[in-house]
């Protein structure tokens, strides 16, 4: 469902701007949408008319978003035919409204407006993720397809030969924990079975949304998606290439090291010394974060000697306590505690009796205080971090709640994804000691182990974060045809990540669909940006906190000055171009990977030494 796709970003606005309607509602919404538009004369629209249109559109979108949020919340917490139909219906309604507003907004493009209204007009015009064609029948079809794709993912299960069936979080735990290549391969292949039926739906979704994008004056959906960064679409693509170029050497060193260690563990037949790494051996269903294989690749003499998953278990943390602990990090910075409704309305545990979308997400139901998370929490270090990630969304949403509806969003979508991760970078050994999880802080001789663990998640992620939309943008532009979906996917996986499918794949498969954000239609470049931005934020906030040590040992826990600075950026919402927001925290206006490289500088030296000493041929 269209709505769902925006869910993980939790942006009421983009959600609202993406949903769709029945023919009857469509007609009604069009009448409403045009109410404030210029009369049908030859006179050019004036400023007053433009402002009246913006106000009217903003009020209607605000109202619709609440209805859509509720329907979506219910659907993804209780996937049935009926909730799917309700979600598709509201999706259709919001989609028609937002497409009408976007079309109207284009008519005022030449009116000179104050910066705030000009910005709102541009948001109305371009902040759509799944634009429906103007034709109501096609809008209805798109809403239905979108809803169905989300349902297919949420309901997905794989049943092993012994009859045991597993949901996505259960299969992910297996991928994280098992070291049996045959078992890993079965789970890897099994989960991808759920995606096969998505292929024709996805293909049609792309056709329809491309038509919608064209109706709005964009070349295709790729151009629309890349138009949301306060710069021209092609400049944005170049900016991504530049950032990737900055971090690529570090990724290559990590890839080389990990491939060598996996070869030591599994041998040549399973994990070859050269070429791309088979995707089932990296501790993650999508080989996107590799922290779960830390034990296989840990340095002999620099292992910090603790594991957060074990610490959580030893100290009796349950799911609720994990969330409480994450909340207390934010309150230590000066943010107000989460409201009671957060605790009574969120979903923390996977229900046994019904299908839910388990992929973690944070929600803002009423664009004010009704914030929630929905997550099937596993009691692991990984999910402890994901909880911080989700709460980052919620605290952002609350910080910008005073903004007008169209500015209730992050500075760009990477910012929304970066906030909780920035906080999680402060989960250092000394922080763990402060909150009573760890007894002794390892000394500096163990830093390489800590940095390696962090790099397995953060650096390994970078090419994955990039390639998903490299694939999608080519699909949207027609450069990748439906007949090439799967092959092109693996070509990009290999090109960017140096990872390959562990078994033959054909066009009967649809491997992109096995990753939530593809059936969910959630843009993915935001996560790549977030993985750059979070290091810029962390460094700047550590400076504000007066930390003088190495940045990988800095925790801003309890530092109100850092909290105030962060809040200044968050409360701006989307009211300013993102460089202005970035400057609030970092003092600079550009995204840059230097902070990433500085953070991992000691590790880069160490990885290169190891690779040289083992005489490894790097690259793939
Ligand atoms: O989808 C998410 C969040 C919700 S916005 C859990 N993430 C991406 C993923 O899981 O693929 C966070 C990191 C990347
Ligand atoms: Zn997120």
Give an account of the 3D structure.
This protein is an all-alpha fold and 620 residues long. Among the domains are: 12-120, no CATH class; 312-449 and 531-596, no CATH class. The protein has helices at 2-6, 12-16, 23-34, 47-77, 81-107, 115-126, 136-155, 168-177, 181-193, 198-215, 221-225, 233-266, 294-297, 308-314, 319-332, 340-345, 381-399, 413-424, 429-434, 447-477, 485-497, 525-544, 560-571, 578-586, 594-599, 601-613, and strands spanning 157-159, 165-167, 277-278, 361-364, 371-374, 499-500. β1 and β2 (165-167) form a beta hairpin. α5 crosses α6 (115-126) and α23 (560-571) runs antiparallel to α24 (578-586). The longest helix is centred in the middle third of the chain and has 34 residues, at 233-266. L-captopril is lined by residues 8, 288, 360-361, 386, 389, 527. This is Peptidyl-dipeptidase a. It comes from Shewanella decolorationis S12.
- Measured as a percent range, the helix fraction is 55-70%
Instruction: Name the ligand types.
Output: L-captopril, zinc ion
- Arithmetic mean pLDDT: 93
For this structure, the quaternary state is: single chain
Unreliable parts? 1-40
Radius of gyration over C-alpha positions, nearest whole angstrom? 24 Å
Number of strands: 6
Number of helices: 26
Beta-strand share of residues: under 5%
Keywords: Disulfide bond, Glycoprotein, Signal
Protein name: Peptidyl-dipeptidase a
Signal peptide: 1-23
InterPro entries: Peptidase_M2 (IPR001548)
């Amino acid at each position: 469902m269209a709505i769902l796709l925006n869910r993980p970003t939790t942006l009421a606005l983009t959600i609202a701007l993406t949903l769709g309607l029945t023919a009857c509602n469509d007609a009604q919404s069009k009448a409403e949408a045009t109410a404030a538009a210029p009369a049908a004369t030859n006179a050019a629209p004036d400023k007053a008319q433009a402002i009246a249109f913006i106000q009217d559109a903003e009020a209607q979108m605000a109202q619709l978003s609440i209805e859509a949020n509720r329907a979506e919340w219910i659907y993804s917490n209780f996937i049935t035919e009926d909730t799917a139909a309700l979600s598709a219906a509201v999706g259709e309604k919001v989609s028609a409204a937002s497409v009408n507003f976007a079309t109207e907004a284009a008519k005022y493009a030449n009116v000179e407006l104050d910066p705030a209204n000009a910005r709102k007009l541009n948001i109305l015009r371009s902040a759509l993720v799944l634009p429906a064609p103007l034709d109501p029948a096609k809008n209805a079809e798109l809403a239905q397809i979108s809803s169905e794709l989300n349902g297919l993912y949420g309901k997905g299960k794989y049943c092993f030969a012994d009859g045991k069936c597993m949901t996505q979080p259960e299969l992910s735990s297996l991928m994280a924990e098992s070291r049996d290549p045959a078992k890993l391969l079965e789970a890897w292949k099994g989960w991808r079975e759920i995606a096969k039926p998505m292929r024709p739906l996805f293909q049609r979704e792309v056709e329809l949304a491309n038509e919608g994008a064209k109706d709005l004056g964009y070349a295709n959906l790729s151009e629309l998606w890349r138009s949301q960064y306060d710069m021209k679409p092609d400049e944005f693509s170049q900016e991504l290439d530049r950032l990737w170029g900055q971090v690529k050497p570090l990724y290559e060193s990590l890839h080389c090291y990990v491939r060598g260690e996996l070869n030591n563990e599994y041998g040549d037949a399973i994990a070859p010394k050269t070429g791309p790494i088979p995707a089932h051996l990296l501790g993650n269903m999508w080989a996107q974060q590799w922290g779960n294989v830390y034990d296989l690749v840990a340095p002999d003499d620099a292992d910090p000697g603790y594991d957060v998953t074990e610490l959580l278990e030893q100290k009796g943390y349950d799911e609720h306590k994990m969330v409480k602990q994450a909340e207390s990090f934010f309150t230590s910075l000066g943010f107000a505690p989460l409201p009671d409704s957060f605790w009574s309305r969120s979903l923390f545990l996977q229900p046994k009796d019904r299908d839910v979308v388990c992929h973690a997400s944070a929600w803002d139901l009423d664009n004010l205080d009704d914030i929630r998370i929905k997550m099937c929490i596993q009691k692991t270090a990984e999910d402890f971090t994901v909880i911080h990630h989700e709460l980052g969304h919620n605290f952002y949403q609350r910080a910008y709640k005073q903004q007008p509806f169209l500015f209730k969003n992050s500075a760009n979508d990477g910012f929304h994804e970066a906030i909780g991760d920035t906080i999680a970078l402060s989960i250092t050994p000394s922080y763990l000691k402060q909150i009573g999880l760890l007894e002794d802080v390892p000394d500096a001789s163990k830093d390489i182990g800590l940095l390696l663990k962090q790099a397995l998640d953060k650096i390994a992620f970078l090419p994955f974060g990039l390639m998903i939309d490299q694939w999608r943008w080519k699909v949207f532009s027609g450069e990748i045809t439906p007949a090439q979906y799967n092959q092109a996917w693996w070509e990009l996986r290999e090109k960017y990540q140096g990872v390959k499918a562990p078994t033959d794949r054909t066009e009967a498969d649809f491997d992109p669909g096995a990753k939530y954000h593809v059936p969910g239609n959630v843009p993915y470049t935001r996560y790549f940006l977030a993985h750059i931005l979070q290091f810029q934020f962390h460094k700047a906030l550590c400076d504000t906190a007066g930390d003088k040590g190495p940045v990988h040992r800095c925790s801003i826990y309890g530092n109100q000055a850092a909290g105030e600075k962060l809040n200044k950026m968050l409360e701006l919402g989307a009211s300013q171009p993102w460089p202005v927001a970035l400057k609030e925290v970092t003092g600079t206006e550009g995204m840059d990977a230097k902070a990433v490289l500085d953070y991992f500088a000691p590790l880069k030296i160490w990885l290169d030494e190891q690779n040289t000493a083992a005489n490894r041929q790097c690259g793939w």
